[in-house]
């Protein structure tokens, strides 16, 4: 895969230092990031037809990615 859209660097460009700090200090946040990457990769594979997926499944994955992104944004907003 060349460029995976919606990477955390693209979604939160000004908060990568904070993301890294939380990832190192909070294992639950680290798992949230790993899950985001897994779902994002699965969407990318489906979108590029490397592994064809039903439209319903793609929609479900996109909703899940958005939910995880919201959780990441919430965690970032709660840190000083």
TrEMBL record:
InterPro entries: DUF465, DUF465_sf. Pfam families: DUF465. This is DUF465 domain-containing protein. It comes from Edaphosphingomonas laterariae.
């Amino acid at each position: 895969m060349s460029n995976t859209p919606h990477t955390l660097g693209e979604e939160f460009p000004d908060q990568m230092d904070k993301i890294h700090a939380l990832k190192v200090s909070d294992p639950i946040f680290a798992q949230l990031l790993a899950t985001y990457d897994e779902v994002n990769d699965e969407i990318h594979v489906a979108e590029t037809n490397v592994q064809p997926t039903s439209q319903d499944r793609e929609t479900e994955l996109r909703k899940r990615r958005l939910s995880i992104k919201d959780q990441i944004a919430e965690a970032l907003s709660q840190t000083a």
